[in-house]
Design goal:
The complex is a heterodimer. By secondary structure, chain A is an alpha/beta fold. Chain A contains 15 helices and 15 strands. In chain A, helix 9 crosses helix 11. The radius of gyration of chain B is 17 Å and the shape is globular. The chains are: A alpha/beta, B alpha/beta.
Chain lengths: ~400, ~270
């Protein structure tokens, strides 16, 4: 059997991925590529990374058998990979530590990041504080409003938060602005991208740093259940938590990999953030080729999701590839379905999930009902929902 | 010989440096664009760089991004831009037009369809900002097969090995971006630019245009002394942004006159 070995040397996953950037960024990306190649298998670097994951993040994150939820659904057993228990409340910290350790080795005193829901911004600000790096986070002004607690958290950690007023004022515009900062300050600045998108080597590097999720899960499932799950379900915006849990399972046969996009108000309304499920055309944005929500002129269109972290018009190029080779399946869950799953987990299991992760939970609930009680679904519970309580309260017309 | 090549050849004979203003198509309103193009030519433009509006212009600063946003209000996309070039060509068959834009609108149209339609509209050159040479070999072939010059950017961080790679794909001219950063950034270091341009010339016979950071007569003059072409973008767009319908053409004309005089005085 030929093992999965992607991307190629220049970051292509078939037709996807690559390095679609202005000439002004080529050299910086090349330097990063060389640096990452040097350290990705370096025992000392990996030991430092592992140490921080254990002692600073609190890894390994447990796997939890959601028994009451499973019983209530009456089908497959649902297990949760508890990334919500990580320091800072989500999977994002895994990647920011990896990249910040690289920044340190490259001698860059300043890190920048883009953020949507604010989780990646918080995770970047956190590691920057710990390593004594200057930190600037770009965030769409719409998201600054939606995610006020995370904005304050970043400031407490010493980061500068820059609201981005251009375009749709969300994640994609924050990414544009961060790229502009990077191209201007490339000498002293490391750009910590938060998802498996962007130009090579980012999609590969972020995947590798997040792969700890799937690597742990493989061992833990054997301990917990004596076997691997029948299906793994994870939400997909850019897709870093999903790639992190999928990647170590790509070569494991008979494990279905299911990515859950945000259907917003419904795919048919056009108000969604589900390029894979909606069969969006292939395009080029943010340095890579992937499936992209766009109009007939090739302008990127505005997306909608109740969860800021999924509100992105593209998707990581490796997901586009896994869809095309049919190794992973992609589905979408509406705002309403995600909200129902959110409340269900709160009440049934005593866990408040992030709205992003609630999309994965909602699909897992549907899927479980079609499966037998001796089958297993592993859901990547990518983050906790504390950051979302304002959004949830507002939807219920409650003033906190 | 392409229109861009012959324009450079003629200017060289005259001992002159090319002045290439940039405007975004559809800014401030699509009805003004063709008139603005004629105004640019009447007031000293040797070629025109015409920006194709894009929703996510990552390599541009706030000035040109706002121009894109103003144009996109009127849904000006690649198809509309090609129509504008056609209209311009009805009365001007001599001034080279270089489209500058991003890859996604080109891919949405289809690279071969775009090459055909650009040829049909009589476009002379194309700059696709986020297509580095490694990612667009076939596209470059399609353009060159139709006599359209693929123009590439060189930056302060482009090493000699990459300069070699790029000049082998480019035709018409190469465009040296004189600053790290996005369009409209400040602080042009003319000594550094001069050294870089000299080293690029050792690797290619293509004319070298210089842009990014040229904001007034003084910087235009200093750049003209070392380059084959001076590209003025954000400053031009600022003049458009600061105008209303009544003084749009005259403000652009005034700025062009100043820049032309400065370039010719070099």
């Amino acid at each position: 059997m030929q093992l999965y070995d992607m991307p190629d040397a220049r970051g292509h996953f078939g037709q996807f991925g690559g390095t679609f950037v202005a000439e002004t960024l080529v050299e910086a990306l090349e330097a990063l590529r060389v640096m990452y190649e040097k350290y990705r298998h370096d025992p000392e670097f990996l030991a430092e990374f592992a140490y921080d994951l254990k002692h600073f993040v609190g890894r390994p994150s447990p796997i939890y058998h959601a028994k009451r939820l499973s019983d209530k659904l009456g089908g497959a057993q649902i297990y949760l990979k508890r990334e919500d228990l990580n320091h800072t409340g989500a999977h994002k910290i895994n990647n920011t530590i990896g990249q910040a350790l690289l920044a340190k080795r490259m001698g860059k005193p300043r890190v920048i990041a883009e953020t949507g829901a604010g989780q990646h911004g918080v995770a970047t600000a956190t590691i920057a504080a710990r390593l004594g790096l200057e930190c600037v986070v770009y965030m769409g002004s719409e998201d600054v409003k939606r995610q006020a607690p995370n904005v304050f958290r970043m400031k407490l950690l010493g980061a500068t938060v820059v609201p981005v007023e251009s375009g749709s004022k969300t994640l994609k515009d924050a990414l544009n602005e961060a790229m502009r900062d990077w191209v201007t300050n490339v000498n002293n600045t490391f750009y910590i991208i938060g998802t498996v998108a962007g130009p090579h080597p980012y999609p590969m590097m972020v995947r590798d740093f997040q792969a700890v999720i799937g690597i742990e899960a493989k061992e833990q499932m054997m301990e917990m259940a004596g076997r691997q799950p029948d299906a793994i379900v994870a939400c997909v915006g850019g897709g870093s938590n999903a790639m992190g849990i999928f990647y170590p399972y790509i070569d494991v046969p008979n494990v279905r990999l299911i990515g859950v996009e945000a259907a917003g108000h419904g795919i048919e309304t056009g108000l969604h953030a589900a390029p894979l499920t909606a069969n969006s055309p292939v395009g080029v944005l943010h340095g890579n080729r992937t499936y992209l929500m766009q109009d007939a002129d090739g302008q990127i269109i505005e997306t909608h999701s109740v969860s800021a972290g999924l509100d992105y018009p593209g998707v990581g190029p490796e997901h586009a590839w896994l869809k095309d080779i049919k190794r992973a399946e992609y589905v979408a869950i509406t705002d309403d379905e995600a909200m129902a799953a959110f409340h269900n987990l709160c009440r049934t299991e005593g866990i408040i999930p992030a709205l992003e992760s609630s999309h994965a939970l909602a699909y897992a609930e549907k899927l479980a009902k079609t499966m037998n009680k001796d089958q297993i679904i592993l859901v990547n519970l990518s983050g906790r929902g504390d950051k979302d309580i304002n959004t949830v309260a507002k939807l219920a017309n409650i003033t906190l | 010989m392409s229109r861009i090549q012959s324009t450079f050849a003629t200017l060289k004979q005259q001992g002159k440096t090319a002045l290439i203003p940039y405007i975004t198509a559809g800014d401030p309103h699509p009805k003004h664009t063709v008139n603005l193009m004629h105004t640019l030519v009447k007031h000293g433009a040797d070629m025109i760089e015409l920006g194709v509006p894009f929703s996510d212009p990552m390599a541009d600063g706030p000035v040109i991004q706002r121009a894109s946003e103003r144009a996109l209000v009127h849904k000006v996309g690649l198809t509309a831009v090609l129509e504008m070039v056609k209209e311009f060509r009805q009365t001007n068959q001599t001034t080279p037009i270089i489209l500058m834009g991003y890859a996604n609108p080109v891919e949405a149209m289809g690279t071969i369809v775009f090459a055909d339609r650009a040829k049909d509209a009589d476009v002379d050159g194309v700059i696709t900002v986020d297509y580095p040479p490694e990612e667009c070999g076939d596209y470059v072939k399609e353009l060159r097969a139709r006599g359209i010059d693929p123009v590439f950017l060189l930056s302060p961080t482009t090493d000699p090995k990459r300069v070699e790679l790029i000049v082998n794909q480019a035709s018409g001219f190469v465009y040296y971006v004189s600053l790290k950063g996005v369009t409209g950034a400040a602080n042009l270091d003319i000594t550094e630019v001069s050294g870089r341009v000299a080293s690029i010339r050792k690797q290619t016979d293509l004319p070298v245009g210089v842009g990014f950071g040229i904001r007034d007569a003084a910087t235009a003059k200093a750049t003209a002394a070392i380059a084959d072409a001076v590209v003025v973008g954000s400053r031009m767009v600022q003049a458009i942004e600061a105008s209303d319908e009544s003084d749009l053409q005259s403000n652009v004309a005034t700025l062009m006159d100043e820049l032309r005089a400065a370039v010719d005085a070099a």
